[in-house]
C-alpha cells in the first residue's frame, strides 16, 4: 500500500504539472501571441508522456495491493480504499478526491483551449478569405482548393 500511495502522489504531481501546462497554453492562446504556442503545446505533450508512464506504474502497484487485499486485479481506487484498513483507507480516499477534482479542472482547461484554437483557426481562415486568397477546403488528393475572388474595391461615394 505504501508503494501505491507514493505512486499516487507522483501521479497527482504530474496532473498538477499538466494543469499548469494547459493553463500556460491557454494564456498563450488568449494573448494571440502564437510565437510560443508550439513550446506551450510541447509542455503539455511532455507531461502527458510522463503521465502515461506513471499510470502504468500505478496499475502495477494497484494490482499488487489488490492481491494483498484479496481483490480481483485492476481495481478502482474506490474499491481499494473500501477494502483497506486505516490509515490506508483515508489516504486512498484523499487521493481519489484529489484526482476527481484535478481531472475536472483539467477537462475544463482542455475544452477551453480547444475553443480558443478553433476560434483562432476560424479567424485566420476568414482573414485569408477576405484577402482573396483563402483555401476553400481540400481536394480529394489533399491539395488546398483555392477559391478565386474578385479584387476588393473601395469607392468614395462623396466624389
Say how many strands there are. 2
Radius of gyration: 25 Å
Instruction: Give, in order, the helices and strands.
Output: HHHHEE
Distance between the first and last residues' Cα: 85 Å
Instruction: Label the overall shape.
Output: elongated
The percentage of residues in β strands lies in: under 5%
Structural class: mainly alpha
Give the strand order, joined by hyphens, for the main sheet. 1-2
Number of helices: 4
- Let me know the average pLDDT: 84
In short:
By secondary structure, this protein is mainly alpha-helical. It is 72% helix and 4% strand. The chain is built from four helices and two strands.
Give the topology.
Blueprint: H1 2-31, H2 37-69, H3 77-83, H4 88-131, E1 135-138, E2 144-146
Antiparallel strand pairs: 1-2
Helix pairs in contact: 1-2, 1-4, 3-4
Structure write-up:
The protein is mainly alpha-helical and 159 residues long. Helices cover 72% and strands 4% of the residues. It has 4 helices and 2 strands. The protein has helices spanning 2-31, 37-69, 77-83, 88-131, and strands spanning 135-138, 144-146. The protein has a two-stranded antiparallel sheet. Helix 1 (2-31) runs antiparallel to helix 2 (37-69), helix 1 runs parallel beside helix 4 and helix 3 runs antiparallel to helix 4 (88-131). The radius of gyration is 25 Å and the shape is elongated. The chain starts with a helix and ends in a 13-residue tail after the last strand. The model has no long low-confidence stretch (mean pLDDT 84).
Which features does this protein show?
single chain, 159 residues, mainly alpha, two-stranded antiparallel ribbon, 4% strand
Amino acid at each position: 500500500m505504501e508503494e501505491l500511495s507514493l505512486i499516487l502522489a507522483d501521479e497527482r504531481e504530474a496532473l498538477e504539472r499538466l494543469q499548469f501546462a494547459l493553463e500556460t497554453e491557454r494564456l498563450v492562446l488568449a494573448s494571440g501571441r502564437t510565437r510560443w504556442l508550439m513550446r506551450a503545446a510541447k509542455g503539455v505533450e511532455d507531461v502527458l508522456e510522463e503521465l502515461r508512464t506513471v499510470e502504468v506504474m500505478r496499475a502495477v502497484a494497484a494490482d499488487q495491493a489488490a492481491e494483498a487485499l484479496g481483490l480481483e486485479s485492476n481495481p478502482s481506487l474506490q474499491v481499494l480504499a473500501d477494502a483497506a484498513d486505516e490509515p490506508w483507507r483515508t489516504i486512498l480516499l484523499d487521493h481519489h478526491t484529489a484526482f476527481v477534482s484535478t481531472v475536472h479542472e483539467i477537462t475544463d482547461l482542455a475544452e477551453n483551449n480547444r475553443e480558443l484554437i478553433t476560434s483562432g483557426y476560424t479567424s485566420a481562415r476568414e482573414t485569408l478569405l477576405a484577402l482573396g486568397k483563402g483555401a476553400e477546403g481540400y481536394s480529394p488528393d489533399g491539395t488546398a482548393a483555392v477559391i478565386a475572388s474578385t479584387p476588393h474595391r473601395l469607392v468614395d461615394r462623396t466624389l
